Amino acid sequence: MRELWSLFWAFLKIGTCTFGGGYAMIPAIRHEFVEVRGSITEEEMMNYLALCQSVPGAIAINAALFIGNKVKGFAGAAAAALGMVFPAFISILLICVFLSQTPENHWIAGALKGVTAASVALIVSTALEQGKKTLKGWHSWVLMALSFVLIVFLKLNAVWAVLLGAAVGAVSWGLRKRGDSKI
């Protein structure tokens, strides 16, 4: 029971103190569960992030579910997800109450713009950190650049880029298994 409470509390803190959505929460989740607790390895974190981006749902909730499940099974997944969701639920509830009373408040509008700018920095930081750890070999860099071009410039739905990455990765792995070390 203590471990479930610990999972709930950890994700409650992350959900409460991190602004900017799931990608902005990744550094805090990684720090807490890879560096501080050692509950998961760096490789597991990267695998969970890949899975979180490949399945429907919010990345932070998906990460909480995967990590909670790894640490304490189904009950751990539930405790972690509840901890992650609770701050957002309360925040949205409060925003609905107070913003409806002050829709033209310039202080609130300014604060939201500041939070948005800081969130972009967190997301870029996460992308760079994840890139350093996962882009190994020229084929990974080429696939990342190709996906970027397809998504940003050609406006291809990101799902297709993920599927392309999965297909190329599977073929590359299959060729390496057969002994072709040039890939």
What does this entry look like structurally?
With 183 residues, the protein is an all-alpha fold. The chain contains seven helices and no strands. Helix 1 packs across helix 4. The chain is globular, with a radius of gyration of 19 Å. The termini are far apart. The model has no long low-confidence stretch (mean pLDDT 84).
Task: Please specify the SSE layout and strand pairing.
Elements: H1 2-17, H2 22-36, H3 42-54, H4 59-99, H5 106-134, H6 138-153, H7 158-177
Cα separation of the termini: 48 Å
β-strand number: 0
Query: Major sheet: size, sense and barrel closure?
Result: none
Order of helices and strands: HHHHHHH
Low-confidence stretches: none
Overall geometry comes to globular
**Which band does the percent of strand residues land in?**
under 5%
Given helix and strand content, the structural type is mainly alpha
**Tally of separate helices:** 7
Mean pLDDT: 84
Instruction: State the share of residues found in helices, binned by percent.
Output: over 70%
From the alpha carbons, calculate the radius of gyration and give it in angstroms: 19 Å
Q: Which keywords apply here?
A:
globular, 183 residues, mainly alpha, single chain, 82% helix
What's this, in brief?
The protein is an all-alpha fold and 183 residues long. The protein is 82% helix and 0% strand.
